[in-house]
Amino acid sequence: MKITRTSRLTGTERTREIDLTPAQLAAWEGGEFIQDATPHLSDADREFVMTGITAEEWTAAFGDDEEETASIH
Asked: Which 3 state secondary structure label does DSSP give 16?
């Protein structure tokens, strides 16, 4: 399903193809937790559906948890 969102971080509008059914989207929009409505989606896909933020934008804004964890050890 094509999903169009505007990033809450950058204001950029993007459309992505997400493996999501109209029923799953309606369940989330109706108040179901997104991880329950769409357990098969990646965290990045769920974030895009909820906020329009891409994985690249997230990393640019907040860093990469794996890199931060690696530098601590």
From this structure: strand
**In this model, does residue 67 exceed pLDDT 80?**
no
Q: How far apart are CA 57 and CA 31, in angstroms?
A: 26
pLDDT band for 64, please (50, 70, 90 cuts): confident
- Domain residue spans in the chain? 2-72
- Is the C-alpha dihedral spanning 57, 40, 51, 25 positive or negative? positive
Give how far Cα 71 sits from Cα of 9, 13, 56, Å. 26, 34, 20
Q: How much is the pLDDT for 8?
A: 96
Site of tokens 């369940």? 27
CA dist 11 and 62 (Å) reads: 17
